[in-house]
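ok so I'm stuck.
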Amino acid sequence: MNTGSDRPGEVAAASDGATMEGPGKEADDGRDRRGLGSRAPEFVRSRRALHLSWQVGVFVVGLAVVAAGVVMLPLPGPGWVVIFGGMAIWATEFVWAQLVLRWTKRKVTEAAQKALDPKVRRRNIILTVTGLVIVAVLVGIYVWKFGLVLPWSIRHQ
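replied:
not stuck anymore, here's the structure
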């Protein structure tokens, strides 16, 4: 796979033959056909030192966002969404992040298609209803055996 070059004017090509032919070019089948590589403005890409600084800045910002997402995994917050947001920031500049993001999008699309399959949906509904019935029976048995005492009805003894 060609990941590009340091020379200005050259673009990277994806393994499927896609190249960067302009901002946001998409094929008739709806797939994203932009090539891999930097999305930095042309004046930034044309100067090596400026482009390197740009890449360092993008990496640091993406790292901060990914780190915040990792912190949000055990704490309250949308951890995975923030992590994928950081990956999207990295994907504006780095080929490896673009490839990871493409793979992730493909897997999410496959999972969504599988979840919409009528057989899978029927199975999931049956499992959910069965689980709710079991929980309701267990709660009913507990209330029957021990009664229902609301916290504000407890008398100090």
